């Protein structure tokens, strides 16, 4: 085949891909769609929050630089029900003996062959293994590190999903072994992080499908300023990124150390440490006061 003809065929492939069926989704022409505003099931159903969203507009590049066109899509599949989907196999989660065996297996192919079935490579954030959910009054997070999901061993990465209720926030914390790539899947997040002493604090408001990065070890927080739920996906460049809540860690030190650290800032006595510890909320808490009043939560 001549080279020009080959190039012409290759140039048509993106059009073929767009026109072809895409799994269980139907691509709809915006000018003729009648079901664009059909409600979609929110992932926040797992949190018990009731919310309705409309079909999502997926940006597709156009021929005009700097502009995009949108193709709304709705899930219209009726050929397969969710009951036909096999569940994730959680039998190996938190299995220290099996995890230790994987960690000392020299070759990746041998490691993969140790898993009993394909479902061992599936993680379900709606039905996660025991010990993977951190709950608070403002929502909860679900982690899939290598202890909860041994199939991650050798991959160098992991993911957590956060479900924040109205005015919920993830209290300031760090990840000692990885940068966090935070993508908003639903709703709005306000984020802040500080890399180290004397570094300026970085503030951002993220809309759906926007993301930010928290550098490894940076103190950071996420806050939902809206009266509707928010969901974020946190990706890590580590199978075991770790997490350390700033307030819990600080007030976990000996009372005389805490007293000495705070003495120059305000009047504080060591005997008050236990009182402060009791006031520290769970890592996913309710706050900021103005948001609570706006949403009728105070």
Please describe the structure with a list of short key phrases separated by commas or semicolons.
298 residues; alpha+beta; six-stranded antiparallel β-sheet; 7 helices; 27% strand
Would you count the extended β strands for me? 15
* SSE topology string: HEEEHHEEEEEEEEEEEHHHEH
Which residues form runs of ≥5 with pLDDT under 50? 12-46, 50-80
- The side-by-side strand order for the widest beta sheet comes to 4-5-6-13-8-11
* Major pleated sheet: 6 strands, antiparallel
| DSSP helical segment count | 7
Bulk shape:
globular
Structural class: alpha+beta
Helix share of residues?
10-25%
Please tell me how large the radius of gyration is.
24 Å
- From the N-terminal CA to the C-terminal CA, the straight-line distance is 72 Å
Mean pLDDT: 78
The amount of beta strand, in percent, is 25-35%
């Amino acid at each position: 085949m001549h080279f020009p003809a080959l190039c012409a065929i290759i140039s048509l492939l993106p059009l073929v891909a767009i026109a072809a069926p895409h799994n269980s989704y139907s691509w709809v022409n915006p000018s003729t769609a009648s079901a664009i505003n059909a409600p979609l099931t929110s992932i926040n159903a797992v949190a018990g929050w009731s919310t309705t969203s409309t079909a999502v507009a997926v940006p597709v590049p156009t021929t005009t630089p700097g502009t995009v066109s949108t193709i709304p899509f709705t899930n219209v599949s009726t050929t397969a029900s969710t009951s036909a989907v096999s569940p994730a196999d959680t039998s190996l989660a938190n299995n220290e003996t099996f995890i230790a065996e994987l960690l000392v297996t020299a070759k990746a192919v041998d490691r993969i062959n140790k898993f009993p079935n394909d479902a061992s490579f599936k993680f379900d954030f709606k039905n996660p293994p025991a010990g993977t959910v951190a709950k608070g009054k403002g929502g909860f997070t679900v982690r899939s590190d290598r202890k909860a999901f041994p199939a991650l061993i050798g991959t160098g990465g992991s993911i957590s999903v956060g479900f924040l209720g109205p005015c919920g926030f993830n209290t300031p914390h760090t990840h000692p072994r990885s940068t966090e790539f935070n993508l908003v899947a639903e709703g709005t997040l306000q984020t802040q992080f500080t890399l180290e002493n004397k570094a300026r604090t970085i503030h951002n408001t993220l809309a759906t499908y926007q993301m930010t990065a928290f550098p490894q070890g940076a103190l950071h927080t996420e806050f939902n300023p809206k009266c509707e739920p928010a969901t974020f996906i946190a990706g890590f460049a580590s199978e075991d990124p770790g997490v350390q809540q700033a307030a819990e860690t600080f007030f976990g030190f000996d009372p005389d150390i805490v007293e000495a650290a705070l003495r120059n800032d305000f009047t504080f006595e060591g005997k008050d440490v236990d009182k402060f510890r009791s006031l520290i909320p769970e890592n996913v808490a309710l706050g900021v006061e103005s948001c609570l009043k706006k949403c009728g939560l105070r």
